[in-house]
Amino acid sequence: MDDPLLLTDKQDGLLCLTLNRPKSLNSLNRALLAALTEAFTAAATDETVRAILLTGAGRGFCAGADLTETAADAVDGVPDIGKNLRENYDPLVQAITQIEKPVLCAVNGVAAGAGANFAFACDIVVAKKSARFLQAFARIALVPDAGGTWHLPRLIGLAKTKGLMMLADEIEATEAERLGLIWQVFEDDDFESQAKALALRLAKGPTKTLGAIKTMLAASADNNLDQQLALEAEQQTIAGYSEDFREGVMAFLQKRDANFKGK
Predict the structure, then answer these.
(1) Which residue among 33, 79, 123, 217 is least crowded, i.e. fewest CB within 10 A of its CB?
(2) Spatial separation of the C-alpha atoms in residues 1 and 172, rounded to whole Å
(3) For the domain that residue 228 is a member of, what is the CATH number?
(4) Is 263 within a domain?
(5) Residue 13: burial class (beta carbons within 10 Å; 0-12, 13-18, 19+)
(6) Are residues 147 and 238 in the same domain?
(7) DSSP state of 167
(8) Which domain holds residue 177?
(9) What is the pTM of this model?
(10) Angle value at C-alpha 37, between 32 and 38, nearest 5 degrees
């Protein structure tokens, strides 16, 4: 029996999703994309899931699209890559960005092409010091996809984005952190434990509040100041009625750690 393409583990409110095609550096085929989209979609309505950790098996996080499958899909030698994006890649980008729960991506090795852009779609990205990031598309005369042209300019600005995408140079994890592409770099020996600890910290947080922060920041890209102020007031009203807010205030007054329930 073949190994599952996606490994899942759920404990203490944390859903761990591990890409499991290590022999191909976890390259993305339709089956893996479908499994990921299904997992995120199910997690959105699963009250026992309060945070998600996305990582890869083996020595790479994700090398991007499985080009052998792309070639096999070609008709008269020409693949309809746009159709593949609309049907398989775009639903996953939307599932990651629209889920109202925090998503931590732990980049354990190379993250290239769509693999890198799926990572950048997550809320917080950490990486091994030995990890590498690459907008590889121009190397094979393709344009960036999987939301990269939306997320990268907002993360690091147009000038740096154009350089990364047009030159298609590989950058180290420490450079990705310096540019503002990712949150933090961990030493290789400590990576798994540090990433897991951070993900569990999110899973123990005020889930609805963290989801609201995610929603508000996404809206800020299109809102003017007045609209964003109104959204803040609306979401703060909702937060003020939550059980977690009452627990947070009580914990503050009692000088103890809050025991949030995600409610």
Answers:
(1) 217
(2) 37
(3) 1.10.12
(4) no
(5) buried
(6) no
(7) H
(8) 6-203
(9) 0.93
(10) 95
Long-range CB contact pairs, 256-260, < 8 A, 24+ = 258/206, 260/204, 260/205, 260/206, 260/207
- Render pLDDT for 135-187 as a digit per residue (tens, 0 to 9): 999 999 999 999 999 999 999 999 999 999 999 999 999 999 999 999 999 99
72 burial level (CB within 10 Å; 0-12, 13-18, 19+) = exposed
| Co-location of 167 and 61 in the same domain | yes
CB 102 within 8 A of CB 205: yes
Place of tokens 């009580």: 250
Report the C-alpha gap between 134 and 170 in whole angstroms.
5
One domain for residues 175 and 231? no
pLDDT tens figures, 198-255: 999 999 999 999 999 999 999 998 999 999 999 999 999 999 999 999 999 999 999 9
| Lookup: tokens for 147 | 């939301």
Task: Report pLDDT digits (tens) over 230-244.
Answer: 999 999 999 999 999
